């Protein structure tokens, strides 16, 4: 079975996963939101004028994961069984690390859902904090882990291109 987004005529089409085995599929992704000290302090202290930034970003990320097939062409609509979006505040760098987790039992992976959750949570933080700091950056959105399917368990390895902590700080 060859899986491709191209049909026999070379046109874009959704991959047919009918013959694939149903298995547990898990994906984890992350993104970084870097901001000024003022914007970070308002977020951390819960003093943003638009409300609870992290609670709103969490809900936005979860909703986005559930709507990934509506946002990304050729993605399969999936019945996710778990979506989680968490935040780690990094005050030494005035940034928020977003971690997303998606899970289901199905025939296709949930990488796009995890990446979408992290991306939309990051965009929500940007939207809610941009009045204080319009120069906020969103950086290093990436897949951190994939479990299930043909590959089994995948995590970035030493041979995969990675960004060092120093490179992250410079961005």
Please provide a written account of the structure:
This protein is α+β, with helices and mostly antiparallel strands and 171 residues long. The protein is 30% helix and 27% strand. The protein contains five helices and five strands, in the order βαααββαββα. The protein has helices spanning 37-45, 53-66, 68-71, 111-129, 165-170, and strands at residues 23-34, 82-90, 95-106, 137-147, 153-154. It starts with 22 loop residues before the first strand and ends with a helix. GO terms for molecular function: cyclic pyranopterin monophosphate synthase activity. Pfam families: MoaC. Residues 149-171 are annotated as: Disordered.
- Order of adjacent strands in the largest pleated sheet: 2-3-1-4-5
Uncertain runs with pLDDT below 50, 5 residues or more?
158-171
Q: What share of residues is helical? A: 25-40%
- Judging from the principal axes of the Cα atoms, what is the shape? elongated
How would you characterize the largest beta sheet? 5 strands, antiparallel
Strand content: 25-35%
Q: What order do the SSEs take from the amino end to the carboxyl end, as H and E? A: EHHHEEHEEH
Count of alpha/pi helices: 5
Number of strands: 5
Distance, first to last CA: 42 Å
Structural class: alpha+beta
Radius of gyration, in Å, reads 18 Å
Mean pLDDT: 88
């Amino acid at each position: 079975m060859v899986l491709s987004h191209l049909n026999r005529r070379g046109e874009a089409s959704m991959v047919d996963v009918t013959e694939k085995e149903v298995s547990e599929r898990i994906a984890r992704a992350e993104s970084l939101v870097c901001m000024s000290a003022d914007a970070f302090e308002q977020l951390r202290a819960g003093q943003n004028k638009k409300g609870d930034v992290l609670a709103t970003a969490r809900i936005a990320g979860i909703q986005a994961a559930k709507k990934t097939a509506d946002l990304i062409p050729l993605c399969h609509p999936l019945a996710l069984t778990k979506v989680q979006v968490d935040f780690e505040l990094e005050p030494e760098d005035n940034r928020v690390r977003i971690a997303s987790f998606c899970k289901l039992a199905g025939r296709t992976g949930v990488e796009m859902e995890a990446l979408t959750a992290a991306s939309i949570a990051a965009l929500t933080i940007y939207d809610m904090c941009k009045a204080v700091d319009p120069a906020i950056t969103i950086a290093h959105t990436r897949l951190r882990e994939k479990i299930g399917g043909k590959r089994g368990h995948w995590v970035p390895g030493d041979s995969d291109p990675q960004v060092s902590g120093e490179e992250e700080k410079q961005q």
